[in-house]
Write a structure and sequence with these properties.
The chain has 13 helices and eleven strands. It has 382 residues and is an alpha+beta fold. It folds into two domains: 173 residues, Cytochrome Bc1 Complex, Chain A, domain 1 (2-Layer Sandwich), CATH 3.30.830; 180 residues, Metalloenzyme, LuxS/M16 peptidase-like (Cytochrome Bc1 Complex, Chain A, domain 1), CATH 3.30.830.10. It has a six-stranded mixed beta sheet, with helices on both faces. A five-stranded mixed beta sheet has the order 7-11-8-10-9, sandwiched between helices. A hairpin with a 4-residue loop joins strand 9 and strand 10. The protein starts with 6 loop residues before the first strand and ends with a strand.
Length: 382
Amino acid sequence: MQENKYNESVLPNGIKLIHREKAGEIAHLVLMVETGTRDEQAHQNGGDLNAFTTKEETCIQASFLKQHYGRALDLFADITFRSTFPENELAKEKEVVLDEIHSYLDSPSDEIYDLFEEMVFKGHPLSRNILGTKDLVKGFNQQSVLDFMACNYSTDTMVLATVGNISFKEFERLAVTYFGSQPAHIVSQKREVFNGYEPENRTLERNNHLSHCIIGGIAPEYGSHLRMPIVMLNNILGGPAMSSRLGLNIREKYGFAYTIESQYTAYSDIGLINVYMAVDPDSLEKTIGLVHKELEKLRTQKLGTLQLHHAKQQLIGQAALGFESGMTELLSATRSLLMGEPIEYMDEIIRKVEAVSANDILDMANQVFDKDRLSRIVFKGN
C-alpha cells in the first residue's frame, strides 16, 4: 500500500469503503449518502437531522482518538440504520430547525443565495432551500421521516470513509462488524435532470442598511472535463485570496463593497457560478457596473504568461492546504466517489491545473459570463 493512496472495497450489502492510512493520534470518519434535498418530494422538504445535508448528499462526520474506531463506527451504524425518531425527540429537533429558519430569514446574505438558486432552478427540485419552510417542518412526524429514509437511503449509494492510523484490513474488519449485517437495501433513484435555464432579473425591497446582490448563471457540472478551468476562473475572479480581481479592483481600489466574492458550486448534472456583493445602497449601481467590467475583461483579455503562472500556483497552494486537513481531504474524496468520479490526489490535481491554458480560461469566461445569459437578484436596502 502506498501511504498517500486510498484503499477501496465494497461490503456485500453495497456500502462502499475507502480508507487511507495516516500516522497520528486523530482519526477522521465520514458516512456519506447520495441523498439530499433535491431527492425530497415537495411536501418533505426541510431540516438537517444529521451532521449536515446538502442538495445532493447527507453526511455524518466525526474526528476522534484512533483507539475509538469501534465506538465511532457503532454510533454511525446506530444513527444510520437504527434511529427510531421518537416523537418527543423530533419535537425538540423541529424547534432547532425552526430557530435556524428564523435566524436565516434575519440574514440577507444567506437568504439571497437561496432565492438566487430558487430563481435559476425555478420549478426544479434543486430550487428548494435546504431548511425548508416553517409549515413543512412543523408537519414532520416519525412516519414521514422513516418513509423518506426507506425511499431514499440505498446501501449502494453509501460511502463509509476514513483517514487514520489503522490498517485497511482492520478497518474492513470493523466495518463488517458494525455495517456488514445490515441487509442490502437498493432503491431505484432517478433524479430529475435540470435543463431549460432562462436568465431572470429580480429586485426586492428590503429594510436593510446594505444592499445585497448576486449576479451569475449556470456552469459545468461536477464531473465535467471543464471543471478545472471553471475552478481557476472563479479563483481569479473572486476566490478566497486577497489578490482576486473583485477584491483588488472593487473593494480595495474603490472601497464600495463591504463584501464581494465569487463562488462556483458543482452539482452532479449542473453547476452555478455567481458574484455576491454587499454594498452601501448609494454605491450599488456603480458596483454592479464595475463587476460587469471585470467579467468583460475576463471574456476579452487573455491572461498573460505570468498571470497564468501566478493563478496556477495560487490554486495549487490552496489545494495543498486543503490536503493538510484530514477531514477536508476525506470529505472531498468521499464526494468524488459518490459522484462516480475517481479520487483526486495532489499529483493529479497539479497535473490538471498545469494543463489549463489561457485560452481555456478565456473560453470558459465567454461560456459562463455572457451578459445575456446571466441572472441577477437584488435586495435593495435603504
